[in-house]
Amino acid sequence: MATLPNRQEQVTLDTFLRGIWEENPVFVMLLGMCPVLAVTNSTINAIAMGLATLFVLVASGALVSLLRKLIPKQVRIATYIIIIATFVTMVDYVIQAISLDLYNALGAFIQLIVVNCVILGRAEAYASKQRVGPAVVNALGMGTGFTIALLCLGTVRELLGNGTILGIQVFSSNFEPWVVMVLPPGGFFVLGAWLLLFEWLKQRKAEPAGAAEGATVHES
């Protein structure tokens, strides 16, 4: 988890975008790997888990920020977990009411949002040190980045494993599904491929800056 300053941060576009690119929970910090690998065997599961995590991130971040001056340091972690667990319980009941099939597909990983290190980490490292505005915007960015990462994995795994996206047939009947993609090993294969792509994009982005710095040193 990136070390953040204690000073109050101004809300900017970077406050939101940081969680999507520079501090993406999955592709950069490798956090929350259990749901990333376990529930991304279909696009709908990935979307549901991503949105559930996004809601808990934003709601818990806002409440932790509001109560940051009232929570004693000695019990802050326990307090954060109680706050997070409250919103996870709400999400659990909502998903159960909307679709029992989706609820059963996600299984225990809904409740395990409570111990997702992305959420607890943001509460401790950011929300507890910032005003409500920056805390909510940053949580939105982190939650969006996490959802995008789940969607990247879920879409690829469903497409290659079933030939569908959101249950809609994409390939012809001649397509032979890669069954391994909807099995646990498929999660590791697809995650590894996305991590390679993400790292390559980061290096591509860094090359112009490095070249410009080298040219400046050479001229001087």
TrEMBL record:
rRNA processing as UniProt keyword: no
GO cellular component, one term: endomembrane system
Record keywords, A-Z: Cell inner membrane, Cell membrane, Electron transport, Membrane, Translocase, Transmembrane, Transmembrane helix, Transport
Transmembrane segments: 20-38, 44-65, 77-96, 102-123, 135-157, 177-198
Membrane topology type: Multi-pass membrane protein
InterPro entries documented for this protein: NqrDE/RnfAE, RnfE
GO BP: electron transport chain
A matching Pfam family: Rnf-Nqr
Catalytic activity, EC: 7.-.-.-
Localization of this protein: Cell inner membrane; Endomembrane system
Family indicated by similarity: Belongs to the NqrDE/RnfAE family.
PANTHER family, A to Z: ELECTRON TRANSPORT COMPLEX PROTEIN RNFE (PTHR30586), ION-TRANSLOCATING OXIDOREDUCTASE COMPLEX SUBUNIT E (PTHR30586:SF0)
Protein purpose: Part of a membrane-bound complex that couples electron transfer with translocation of ions across the membrane.
Assembly behavior: The complex is composed of six subunits: RnfA, RnfB, RnfC, RnfD, RnfE and RnfG.
Full protein name: Ion-translocating oxidoreductase complex subunit E
The species this protein was found in: Sedimenticola thiotaurini
